[in-house]
Write a sequence for this structure.
């Protein structure tokens, strides 16, 4: 389904996070000496974009979804994901993720994003009126002002290299 323009800012941020997940997956198994660089990059994503993103979803998207009883269990599930992902971001910030935990983190974040995009966003587009979506889009624009509008570039250690 084509994404409604009101939700596109969140979808763009999802693309940034998915790109990180793909890079982690392709770099796996991650060498122990590269773990600090990966964790620093993950923590940077959280600080510059994802923390604001989670807040916008919790304060704007999820309340809009809770208007519909059928979406309430999905919202509960997504909020639980946010809590677990916040713990993983904090672990990355503290440099406590192992290579296996880093890979598991990327898989969880990717699954969470797909759940939002394919489940929540698509259903909201079907259930909300054009006016409600437009209003939601305005609220999201305000809520996302504090997020960085740039992509975090990989460091030398996290940049993918062609396999020989």
């Amino acid at each position: 389904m084509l994404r409604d323009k009101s939700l596109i800012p969140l979808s763009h941020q999802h693309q940034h996070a998915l790109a990180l997940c793909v890079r982690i997956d392709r770099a796996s198994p991650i060498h122990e000496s590269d773990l600090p660089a990966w964790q620093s990059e993950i923590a940077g994503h959280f600080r510059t974009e994802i923390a604001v993103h989670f807040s916008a979803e919790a304060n704007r998207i999820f309340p809009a979804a809770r208007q519909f009883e059928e979406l309430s269990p999905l919202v509960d599930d997504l909020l639980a994901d946010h809590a677990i992902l916040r713990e993983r971001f904090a672990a990355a910030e503290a440099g406590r993720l192992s290579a296996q935990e880093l890979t598991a983190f990327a898989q969880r974040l990717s699954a969470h994003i797909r759940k939002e995009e394919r489940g929540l966003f698509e259903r909201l587009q079907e259930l909300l009126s054009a006016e409600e979506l437009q209003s939601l889009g305005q609220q999201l624009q305000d809520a996302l002002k504090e997020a960085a509008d740039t992509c975090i570039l990989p460091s030398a250690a996290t940049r993918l290299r062609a396999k020989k």
